[in-house]
Amino acid sequence: MDIPAMRANFAKAGATGDEAPLYFYSHLFLSHPETRAMFPVSMAHQRDRLFAALGDVVARVDDLGSLVPILQQLGRDHRKFGTLAAHYPAVGASLLATLEHFDDEWTPELAKSWSEAYDVVASVMIQAAEDATEQPAWWEADVLAHDRRGIDVAVLQVRPRTRYDYLPGQSVSLETDVRPRLWRYYSPANAPRTDGLLEIHVKARDGGPVSSALVRRVGVGDVLRLGPPIGHLALRQDSDRDLLLVAGGMGLAPMKAIIDQVARAGPARRVDLYVGFRTEEQIYDRADLRRLTDENPWLTVTFAVSEDKISSLEQGEVGDVVLRHGPWLSREVCVAGPAAMVEDTVSRLRQHGVPDSRISSEVFAPSRPGPSVDGEVTE
Predict the structure, then answer these.
(1) Domain extents for the chain?
(2) With contact defined as beta carbons under 8 Å apart, do 76 and 83 qualify?
(3) pLDDT at residue 370 above 50?
């Protein structure tokens, strides 16, 4: 495969904005009308997502060691859409047609490279889906509690009707009948429990149809559907190092799950959690974090506010506040939150001397439908 040529070709399609995704879906739906039922009625929130995901794959196509596990997760996850092995050739044909349409320098050699790359991606995803046939494509879960924590934030308690396994720090995709065929990822704020309960933190985003519905329309007694868990943020099973957890906004949820895991299963270790918000008023989970520190003497919680000069809390970006309280050279580190916050915090910690092998991170971004290969989570 001529990977540099593939990346240059993909960049040409990506530079067209909405035109390339529109061409792709038009080609797919006209050539294979049966695939239309797999997508939402409105494509307004869908069109750009294929190319965002493809960009992530292209960026790693020469690093199969990291790409294959991600493709396996996606293959298992896509079963919830009704994706079958027979659909992959249709998607591949429409992809190549789109990439050719927007490149005046398209060649048979480039077509061969893309066909080979797509065959690898498709075969890995198909095999992973086939290996997962004994588990459900999705799980139904009842909403047992819905607590509004402000105009745009809610905390939901949901219970799957059958066993649902996940790891603290992972994310799960949710679908509601209020927004059919629109799946969005959220990270449970607790470790797995014997009663199966999941705590889900949701912030209604501007233009976010699912997050807005979960905050403002879904209530007790409603049923959600959960897709398979996915994600990269997790504790190393072979380490008992003390932890540094850094969260921005809704990135707090997976950090609470990790704290819950330490409390339930150990090993005993010190945990320092830093949580950043723009203003003190936005801290929606303060009471429960106070409860956690009261119950667990090994846990400390520090809040940082970046745009609230009258607050008595620590001032500044959360990554800056973290470094003021170091050193952290012996810690295992987890970081979750908006992209800029994650990038800034991880960069500061690397410069501080924490090795990459002990840093895991997850970006919580409103622009994507789920974790990308770089770990983004919405909404």
Answers:
(1) 3-131, 139-226, 243-377
(2) no
(3) no
Bridge pairing between strands 359-364 and 376-377: parallel
Q: What is the pTM of this model?
A: 0.80
The answer to whether the Cα torsion of 131, 74, 250, 146 is positive or negative is: negative
CA torsion sign for 223, 228, 231, 237 is positive
Strand partners, 224: 141, 176
Distance between start and end Cα atoms, the chain = 35
Residue 213 CB: number of other CB atoms within 10 A?
20
Note if the bond before 267 is cis, omega within 30 degrees: yes
- Cβ-in-10-Å burial (0-12, 13-18, 19+) of 364 comes to buried
Whether the ω angle into residue 69 lies within 30 degrees of 0, i.e. cis, is: no
Residue 6: its H or E element: helix 3-14
* Sign of the alpha-carbon torsion through 54, 56, 61, 64: negative
Tell which residue, 311, 128, 90, has the closest CA to residue 230.
128
State the Cα–Cα distance between residues 89 and 271, nearest whole angstrom: 48
The CATH code of the domain at 3-131 is: 1.10.490.10
Q: Do the beta carbons of residue 51 and residue 13 sit within 8 Å?
A: yes
Q: Which residue has the tokens 């008023």?
A: 281
Secondary structure (DSSP) of 104-131: TT--HHHHHHHHHHHHHHHHHHHHHHHH
The two counts, helices (H) then strands (E), for the chain are 11, 13
The fold of the 243-377 domain, in CATH, is Rossmann fold (3.40.50)
pLDDT reported for residue 46: 61
Under 8 Å between Cβ of 244 and 270: no
In contact, 30 and 141? CB cutoff 8 Å: no
Q: Which residues of 296-321 are buried (b: 16+ CB within 10 A; e: fewer)?
A: eeebebbbbbbebeebebbeebbbbb
* CATH class, range 139-226: mainly beta
Please list the residues that pair with 148 across neighbouring strands: 154
Per residue in 187-210, pLDDT (tens digit) is: 999 999 999 999 999 999 887 888
Which single residue is written with the structure tokens 């720090």?
Answer: 169
Confidence of residue 371 (pLDDT cuts 50, 70, 90): very low
Query: Does residue 286 contact residue 302 with C-beta atoms inside 8 Å?
Result: no
The pLDDT value given to residue 182: 84
Cα separation of 356 and 284, whole Å? Answer: 31
